Amino acid sequence: MTITSEEHILVINPGGFSAKAYEAFRELPFVASLTILPGVGYGGRSDPAEEITAEEWARTTVLVTGKTLPPSPEAAPNLKYVQLFSAGSNQLHNLPFYRATDNVTYATASGTHGPAISEWVILMMLTFFHNSHLYPKWQAEARWGDDSEFPRPVIDQFGRTLGVLGYGAIGRQTARVAKALGMKVIAHSFSSPPKKERVEVAVPNSGDPDGSIPEKWYTGVEGLDDFFCSGIDVLVVSAPFTPETAKIINRKTLAKLKGAYIINIARGGLIDTDDLIEAAESGLIAGAALDVTDPEPLPDGHKLWSVNNISISPHISGHCVGYENRVTNIAIHNIKQLRAGKPVTNLVDKAKGY
């Protein structure tokens, strides 16, 4: 699909993001108008749909959003491109507009999160294996602590195996950083062929552009058992959430990951929560770090809060200064591609669900 008319861009800006980033849209010669609705987005913040007039929806050709879409295809007849702030698109799948529009191009923010989330992964991994969560406690107590208080021996990660389940932008950047620590990286991808090129638009020169970092590849549903049984020390769950991957980490797969430390930065639904708690408390796995949970947000009193070898953060591993600039970079790149009749990056495949 080629876009030839002037662009009318509507940005529904998640709270906490600077609106200055979107001024880059005004520099494009084919942009006729830019509307920014501030202070809205995820985590219970107000839905701005009621603030958007019928006239605004009708003229919008490009929408930059977290999860708010037009009320109907008829309300936004000129909309051709939707840029998401998220790496996934599952939040849209049940929305009427998304289900009814095959003539709209949707793209994710994949690649935007890679550096921040990969650093969070390494942070949580090293915090766990170095017991460094005790250091602030000792300092607050003005006490010179001792490693006899460590709940587990310190284990450095040199030579250990990092398994990446889902080798997209986040998985690739995590592999890059882990390799710098001396880890062996293996990867599983549901795509075939798995070892494919991916050049990042949001953060140029990041990730693993030619897929050369993993020492071994596994692919498809048929490759999962071999992947889980390959001696993984640290598993990073970074696959899309689809019916195929729902609760893919369960009692059966956890038994194959004996002794592993599991890190989930994808979606909480990829892990069976009850099975994870059982595996962590029994010592079957070393522990886990979760930036996403099922349910989410995790309610008060949920058992996950009290499992001492599971760490939880409130779905913020990808938050960083400049995030909105990177999303804008993707949108500008893709708008230019569409206008030239060329393929876009991070295209959502509705059939696959991501």
UniProtKB/TrEMBL annotation:
UniProt-listed Gene3D superfamilies: NAD(P)-binding Rossmann-like Domain
Query: What InterPro entries does the record tag this protein with?
Result: D-isomer_DH_CS1, D-isomer_DH_NAD-bd, NAD(P)-bd_dom_sf
Q: Does the keyword GTP-binding apply?
A: no
* A GO MF term: oxidoreductase activity
Q: D-isomer specific 2-hydroxyacid dehydrogenase NAD-binding domain spans which residues?
A: 123-317
- Decide whether keyword NAD is in the record: yes
Q: Which UniProt keywords apply?
A: NAD, Oxidoreductase
Read off the PANTHER family from this record.
2-HACID_DH_C DOMAIN-CONTAINING PROTEIN (PTHR43333), D-ISOMER SPECIFIC 2-HYDROXYACID DEHYDROGENASE NAD-BINDING DOMAIN-CONTAINING PROTEIN (PTHR43333:SF1)
Protein name per UniProt: D-isomer specific 2-hydroxyacid dehydrogenase NAD-binding domain-containing protein
Q: Which organism is it from?
A: Lipomyces starkeyi NRRL Y-11557
